[in-house]
Design a protein that fits this description.
The structure is a homodimer of 332-residue chains.
Chain A lengths: L1 E7 L12 E7 L7 E10 L4 H4 L17 E11 L9 E7 L3 E5 L4 E2 L16 H14 L6 E5 L4 H12 L3 E6 L2 H9 L5 E4 L6 H8 L4 E6 L3 H8 L2 E9 L13 E3 L2 H6 L3 E4 L9 H13 L7 E5 L4 H9 L6 E5 L1
Parallel strand pairs in A: 8-9, 8-11, 9-10, 11-12, 12-14, 15-16
Antiparallel strand pairs in A: 1-2, 3-4, 3-6, 3-16, 4-5, 5-7
GO molecular function (chains A, B): oxidoreductase activity, acting on the CH-CH group of donors, NAD or NADP as acceptor
Protein name (chains A, B): Enoyl reductase (ER) domain-containing protein
Keywords (chains A, B): Membrane, Oxidoreductase, Transmembrane, Transmembrane helix
Chain lengths: 332, 332
């Protein structure tokens, strides 16, 4: 049996291009005891994947050259030599970008398809939602009446953070990169105010105008000059969760900016970088809250779905151009 | 009755000079019920005072032009109309730089002179010691075997932080600005390793060499390029306490440097600015530990004492030239 796969052909210098990927056809291995044959349905593309394309130390190891890209995948069991999984089951795993693959039952989680659309397990009910939940609740510790600013607010994580912050009684300001996105954040997702950073000349002033009492919580997916503008308005005892720095991922030099420490010092600000796996022991609790909120309609979710396995590299590159509203997914 | 006082004559642009201060002779007010007449013994000079010379929002309000500088003072009661304090008592207060002054009993704390030299209440048993204690214990949460780097290690706070870290079983590396200071940190205060930043060409490499397992805790009194070098060696899940930024206090422009967020993000690092009063409710507990450690000889303290009330401005300026080992104090 043959399958398509997408491998890392070369490491990007600066912004990645389609040339950094290669589509191949290879043999599928023989299935052994404890394993299943899978066919991918939904493939997650995420900003953190850019970091794994570099050959540098980070919280996840780099992708290897000539080896398939890996990520979150929802797949269907076509054949099983596992006692735990049967043909037709829908599973979630960190899997290679292959149309078909053999995987061990140990690396797969069976999905309850009655709770929500299965793609949600890559998003609001998966790593994305848990990232939003723990970054906001455990690091930022929102209190009712506080002002929360979110950069990359129309991204998969941002849109969930904003809705959880509203549930906690906060005032929520979202920063995004198009009028379509900012409009959607207000009308569909209940954000109080929004800023289109692409059409705003003085971001520092724009944030000051929308946050007359200052910024108590900054959930940062973006970094760079947007963050400079938010931090210039930061309050005493504020909390900043560093979830992503998408504005800087394609930098070829070490980015330079105003030094943060004097501001963080004089205003007693906390800044915490994190990755969702830091909160692994609390995943069940986070999932429980997210599932309830989704079920009760308190959290809405949104996806940008590209069709066709071959579109995976293009969809990933699209993240860095802000082509997604909410979670970016490829449907095989 | 007349007294000398030192007022802020003008706000400094960049590094302060003696011209920014003015020595005056003024009348002492009449003593009223609930008040005492004080004569200053020891006057604290501290890096944070530089911030109060600017007209900018910070954790403490700016000094007023033509008004006395204020700071921690140990004084003797010369005359009392208070039921709580009697002539001869030794007190601590946030007081103006005056040789003699009238003060309300409400703003004074009587000192137990049997515990340690009275000047220690401006240092290891005062704000300095509490700053070291809470910055290290509550923010950095040291674990036995971890590597702790301290900038400004020979300063009043740094020298206490290092000794508390040693009590917690950590490996302690101190950064200071002279061979005399680094030698003293090792031989007198039990630091494991030290770096003289003034004679070290490649700080990043020097820290890497002394911290083969990376930096778990960075207690930062200094900021600027020294911090860049330490943070380049920071570990996953490290904690950075921002206690001071003395390298930047005299900057006239917003200091620029490498952006920190990518490093803090990919290594799940916490950075927390603080001021000791954030931990006000826990002062009694911190004081108890510090007093025990001083009594048991587990923490040694060191002071640089300048003689003469008129020397206060010179002593303050000396802090920015690194003229002090340990706590800088002026004895009237």
């Amino acid at each position: 049996m043959k399958t398509k796969q997408i491998v890392l052909a070369s490491r990007p210098k600066g912004s990645p291009t389609l040339d950094n990927f290669r589509l191949e056809t290879v043999d599928v291995a023989q299935i052994k005891d404890g394993e299943v044959l899978l066919e991918g349905i939904y493939y997650s593309v995420d900003p953190y994947m850019r970091g794994r394309m570099n050959d540098t130390k980070s919280y996840t190891p780099p992708f290897d050259i000539d080896q398939p890209i890996q990520g979150g995948v929802i797949a269907k069991v076509l054949e099983s030599k596992s006692d735990k999984l049967k043909t037709g089951d829908i599973v979630l795993g960190m899997l290679p970008w292959k149309e078909k693959d053999i995987a061990s039952e140990k690396n797969l989680k069976k999905i309850d398809t009655s709770v929500a659309p299965v793609s949600y397990y890559l998003g609001v009910l998966g790593m994305t939602g848990l990232t939003a939940y723990f970054g906001l609740m455990n690091i930022c510790k929102p209190k009712s009446g506080e002002t929360v600013v979110i950069s990359g607010a129309a991204g998969a994580v941002g849109v969930v953070v904003g809705q959880i912050a509203k549930i906690q009684g906060c005032r929520v300001i979202g920063i995004a990169g198009s009028d379509e996105k900012t409009k959607s954040l207000k009308t569909e997702f209940g954000f109080d105010e929004t800023i289109n950073y692409k059409t705003t000349k003085d971001m520092k002033q724009a944030i000051a105008a929308l946050c007359p009492k200052g910024v108590d919580i900054y959930f940062d997916n973006v970094g760079g000059e947007i963050s400079d503008a938010v931090i210039a308005n930061i309050n005493f005892n504020a909390r900043i969760a560093l979830c992503g720095q998408i504005a800087l991922y394609n930098s070829t030099e070490i980015p330079v900016g105003p030094r943060l420490q004097p501001m963080l010092l004089t205003r007693s600000v906390l800044m915490q970088g994190f990755i969702v796996s830091n909160f692994q022991n609390e995943f069940p609790e986070g999932f429980k809250h997210l599932a309830e909120w989704v079920k009760d309609g308190k959290i809405k979710f949104t996806e940008t779905i590209e069709n066709g396995f071959d579109q995976l590299p293009k969809a990933l590159l699209g993240l860095f151009k802000g082509e997604n509203m909410g979670k970016m997914i490829v449907k095989a």
